[in-house]
Amino acid sequence: MIRALTGFSTRHPWKVIALWSVIGILFAVAAGALMPRASQASSGDFLPKDYDSAAALRVAEERFGVASDASALTVLVGRPDGKPLTGPDRKHVVSVAKELGSRRVVMPDPQDTATTADDQIPFLATDYSQTPEVSVGMTAPDGTFALLSVRLEGNTVDTGMHNLFRAFREQAEDAFADVDLRTGFTGGLADQVDTRDAEETTQRVVGLLMLGLIVLVNVLVFRSPCAAFIPLLAVVIVGGAATGVIVVGALLTGIKLDASTPSMIGVVLIGIGVDYFLFLLFRFRELLRERPDAPPRAVAAEVGSRVGTAVTSAALTIVAAFATLGIATYGGFRVLGPAVAVAVLVMLLASLTLMPALLAVTGRRMFWPSRALKRAPRPGLAGRTGDLVARAPLTSLLASVALLGALAVGAIGIRMDFGQGGTPHETRSATTAAEIARALPAGVSDPATVYVTAAEGDRVPTTALGGLSRELARVEGVGKVGAPVLNAQRDAARIDLYLTADSQTQAARDLVSGPVRDTVAAHTPKGLRAHVGGTAAVFADISSAVDKDLKTVFPVAAGLIALILLVLLRSLLAPVVLLLSVGLCFAATLGSATLVFQHALDEPGVNFVLPLVLFLFVVAIGTDYNILIGDRIREEMEGPRTARAAVARAVRHTAPAIATAGVVLAASFGSLAIGSNASTQQIGFATGLGILLSAFVLSIVLVPAAAALLGRGIWWPVRPGGRRGHGGHPEHVAPVPGAADHRAESATTTG
């Protein structure tokens, strides 16, 4: 199958390139236009229905008409001089709020906004024009400001909705300025828009720097602009196709993507796509050197066939790891896993078709103007490393294990942090939230809510809720309890709780999941049912779901990867070595993240999704690199050379590709570390570090050292080469003419 795909692609390269280009562009355009329709921003919608906060969301939607995509805003209104509001000021607040609640907000034409080129296609944009719900809320105890509660409905992932908020903010600012009052906006869309605006320039610069680093690394390695830019261009085209496939698939199946899925997929595709192209390029260059008179298309076909087998095995390992997320209870994981798996499969198909076609078309011109093809390769660091590992495998193995083990010790005492990072402190939204928090309970702009419902056909008696409200007011950490509000049918009631802790903090989550829910369970009147909702409750339930998923996904993913390795490697011992090494690397990476963020930076702990993300990426990609070096070691052991000479030669030829790929992929993930969101920073830093450890410690040193120590026995029961039955020991090998010279060359020459 692999040979057929690569053979067809190298025989008809221009057709393959044209087909991929058309598909990539069309699907990229479709993804950009349809992504908002396939995404949702509400994390609560990803929770299973049996969780308490998920039940509260259903009550809010069914009994109170609160749309699942509604975004609540808090508007602060005060005097410019900071003095308490006067009687006329309070009247102005009420009258202007009434006016804003009756005025339709028209979403700006996408053609007139700065986001059009990046995010929207005008004729496919959704029109979110609407009349917002505006009501006057509480006033600061010192009377310096009043708060308005505003509700806008629409997909907050869509930049069109962001533009609608900007239009509403401008209307509100102008309306209150006319009566000499100032405004501030926080919560919901205000946080998202302000964060996006604050980080837009930084993210673009980081993206350009990441692409520049990839190009620079390739230029330094291959001394050729073609080898630097063609892989990147190909990966961008394939990335557009993969993202489009996922978006279209989500729309056809009715599955909603998490808002973070597109950025995660983009990082994964750029990283592994460039990785796979690099593996092909290095082997292509190696064979062109060995066969200066061979037709480039024939060499490209052979490279595609040889490397394609290893790339397929590596890609299927990543697919298997992420596919296990399909069994997760938290919907965000259940969507992310298959989405990444599909994206990797699309990139794998491109690795077996588009990339060999590009090699066939460019041929030796791929490495112009470098003269590396015309001269014998010189000794280099890769050759010296391979020689060192082959000469002293036990020392190399122990040093690698000691390094990883020392880092893994850092995971002792690890704590999980379920914070969401918040907005940058310099944004207008954050400044407004801080001003409110100085005068009122921190959770006033995002209250927890208790929903009380009666059985079908019954009503909720207002007098029955007084006792529950009084008991909730006695709970430590509840700053204020709002009066019960009945719905139109009077079969449900809502009680808002204004916590003293910010809704996105661990303290708020502990409060609602513990004392608040206990109080509700103990004091809800007989015949009524109650559920606790709100941001804090949602993330408290997400933390429970994620904790359950970690205990399920880890062993299933590890077992599936082990099974794949057994089938691919046809060995019982090699999979054990590979899995133990990547397991140690995972522990080392998690320990490093704990040392940096929990201890050095004194953060509450590591982000709650970090262990799962690290496990999937570090174990899957670490196995990815290990398969590539293991496949080359096995190939070299098929020959007459000793096991250690085979390891030295495999490291010499494969280490440059793995090292370059590791740097590129680590840079790709490292770009996530630039930003205000603490959870994204941790994921970017830790994943980048884990990939570097996988590349430079596991695949270049630890695994080759283990192979050198175990010899051909590592492939038992199907041992390669002519040493079956001899245990792979050099003394049992018959000398081959020229073997000594070949071994000497193997230990001192780089690829």
- The average pLDDT is 83
Give the count of helical stretches.
Answer: 23
According to DSSP, the number of beta strands is: 13
Q: State which percent range the strand residues make up.
A: 5-15%
Helix content: 55-70%
Supply the helix-strand structural class. alpha+beta
| C-alpha termini separation | 29 Å
Largest sheet: 5 strands, antiparallel
Q: How many whole angstroms does the radius of gyration measure?
A: 30 Å
Broad shape: elongated
Poorly predicted regions: 722-751
Compile the SSE list and pairings.
Blueprint: H1 2-11, H2 13-38, E1 39-40, H3 52-64, E2 70-78, H4 87-100, H5 116-119, E3 133-139, E4 145-153, H6 159-177, E5 182-186, H7 189-222, H8 225-253, E6 257-258, H9 261-290, H10 296-323, H11 331-352, H12 354-362, H13 381-391, H14 393-408, E7 416-417, H15 428-439, E8 448-454, H16 466-474, E9 478-481, E10 485-486, E11 492-499, H17 506-523, E12 528-533, H18 535-569, H19 573-600, E13 606-607, H20 610-637, H21 643-670, H22 678-710, H23 739-748
Parallel strand pairs: 1-6, 7-13
Antiparallel strand pairs: 2-4, 2-5, 3-4, 8-11, 8-12, 9-11, 10-11
Helix pairs in contact: 1-10, 1-12, 2-8, 2-12, 4-6, 6-7, 7-8, 7-21, 8-9, 8-11, 9-10, 9-11, 9-21, 10-11, 10-12, 10-18, 10-20, 13-14, 13-21, 13-22, 14-19, 14-22, 16-17, 17-18, 18-19, 18-20, 19-20, 19-22, 20-21, 20-22, 21-22, 21-23
